[in-house]
C-alpha cells in the first residue's frame, strides 16, 4: 500500500480511536470503586445533587406539625451552660406534654447517671438522719428519677450513640448504658452486607430505658466530602439491628410495634431492600440509607427556644398534636452539619427532616436498583452517537449537537428527578459529553483549517481573490467532491497559433504566451470566473463553481467581451514590440456539468466535465468557420439576458444527433442601424429555417451594409442557392452537420 494511503487510513482510524478511548476511560471512571476515581466523582456528583436540592426540590410541603425545641445560645445564657440537670429536662418534658406534644424526641445523650447532690450532703453530716428523712432527701434530689417520671407520662424517644471506640487498655469496645433493639424486627438469616456496623455504644440509663417509648441512634452520616446528604435508617451491632432516632420517632408516632426490614439473600449474603413500617414502605439502598429531602435552609421547621418553654412564655397552640425534636443549634455544642442547603445545619433538624420524609416516603429521592445499568447505557449511547454523527462536522455543527445533547441529558435527568423522584448521577455523563464535544470541536477546527489550506491550494491561482476570501470564511459553502451543477463554461483559443509559434524561439514563445495569458486571465478572474486550465494556447474557464453564481451565463459572456477588448490593447503592445498579433475565438455553453476535484492520487485539479463542456469546446472551434469572435449555445443565450444576439446557425456537432441553435452575442456599443441590420439578419435565418428560401434570398440581397459579417452573408447565399436548386428533404430540421471538431 502506498505510504500516503497508509497515512490517510491511519488518520481515519485515529478519528475513531481517540473518542473510543475517551468512552472507555469514562466508563472505567464510573465503574471502578477506587478512591482515586471515586472521591472526585462523588464530590462533583454531590455538588450537582446539592444544586438540585437547593434549586429544584420536588417534594411537597410538610403536612405534619413538627416542632423543634432549641437549646440555643439564649437558653444557655438564661438557664445555664450544658450539661443541664436532668431536673431541667424533666421540667421541659412535662411542660411540652402539657402544651400538647404527642411525641418528644431528644437529640441529647443520656448515657450516664447524674450525681445526686444529697449523697454528698448526707455523707458530710455529723449527725445521722432518720432513715425516712434520708430517703426523702435522696428522692428529692434524684433528678434522674424525676426525668424518668416525666418520660413515663408521655411518648418519648431518646438518643443513643453508636461508635467504634475502644478502651485504650483492654482494646475492648466501649459500651455504656442499655441498648434496645426492640423497635426493629430481627428477620435476616444470612450475613448482613452493606448496613453500617458498629462495635460500641453509649446507650441509656437502665431506668430511662424502661420507661421510654423508643430509642434511636443520633449518628450522622457524611459523604466523602463531609456533607450530609443521606442517612442510614438502621445500623448493626453484634448482629442486631437498631433504628435511627428519626425512624424510631416515626415508629412511635405511627403506633407500630416493629419496623420490618426486607432482605434479598444472594450467595449467603443479605442485602437490604427497604423497610416496612406498618402499611408504609420505605425503599433504601443496601446500606440502609435514604437521601435527606431538605426543604430549605436551616430553620425551615418552627424553632422555639427551650428557655421560652421553661419560663412559661408559650401562650399559643404551636405544640398541640406536635412531634417535637429537642436538640441544639448552639455553635459551641458542635451539632452543626454541612448539608446541601447550609454549611451550619443543626443536626436536630436533620432528624426532623428525615421524620417528615417518612410521613410521605414516595417523595423521597431514590436510586432504583437499575441506576448503574442506566448510567452505563447513557454513556454508551452518547459515545456511539458522537462516533457516528460527529466524524467530520464543522465546529458550529458539533457545538450545536453537543449543546442539544447536553440539554437532552440534563432534561431527562431533571425529569426523572422532578416527576419521579429518581436521582441519577450526572457528572460522568456530562464529562463524556464535554470531552467528546471538545475533541470533535477541536478536530473540526483542525479539519476546517486543513480544508482552508486545501481550498486555498486548489483555487488560489484559478478563482478571483474575493471568491477565495468567501470560501475561506465559509469552507462548507464549497465541496471538492464531485457534484452536478448548472454552470457556464468558456473556451478561448488563439487562431493560427501553430504558424505564430513557428516564427519564434521557445523562449520568445513562452514570454509571448505569458504576456497574452496575463490580461486574458485577469478578465476572467475580474468577471468572477474560475480558471480551469491552460492547454497550449487554449484557456478554459467556468462560472458557478466553486461558489454558486446565479448570473453565471451573463458573467461568462461579459468576460468574453472584456477579453476581446483587452486583446485590442494587447495587440497594440505587440505591434510596438514587433511581435505577432493575437486573435482569438471564444465558445461559451451553459448546462449541467460534473464539477469537482478530479484526478489521481498523484495529481488532481478542480475541473468540469460533461457533454455541455464538450459543446463549449466545439463552439470555440466553429468561431472561425462562421467568422465571429464569440459563439454561445442556446442555453447560454436563454440565461444571459443582458445581451442581444445574432442568430448564427443550427448545427449538429460531431458525436451528437440533436441540433443546437448557436448565437453570437452583440456588443453593447452597436449603433441603431447596426442593431437593425442584425435583427434583419435574424429574420432572414428564421425564413431560412422555415424553408422560405426565396424570401430569405430576397431579404439577404437587400441587407444593409451596416451588417459587417460578409462571411456569413456569403455562407447563407451559397446555402440558399443550393436549396433553391435542390430542396432539402421533408424531415430537414434546418441544421448543418459539422464533421470536424
Automatic annotation (TrEMBL):
Keyword Transmembrane: yes
Transmembrane portions of the chain: 370-390, 397-420, 426-447
GO molecular function: adenylate cyclase activity
SMART domains in the cross-refs: CHASE2, CYCc
The Guanylate cyclase domain, residue ranges: 488-620
Gene Ontology biological process terms in this record: cAMP biosynthetic process; intracellular signal transduction
InterPro entries linked to this entry: A/G_cyclase, Adenylyl/Guanylyl_Cyclase_3/4, CHASE2, Nucleotide_cyclase
Signal peptide, first to last residue: none
Source organism of this protein record: Paraglaciecola hydrolytica
Protein name according to UniProt: Guanylate cyclase domain-containing protein
Record keywords: Membrane, Transmembrane, Transmembrane helix
Coiled coil (residue ranges): none
Chloroplast in keyword set: no
Pfam families, per database record: CHASE2, Guanylate_cyc
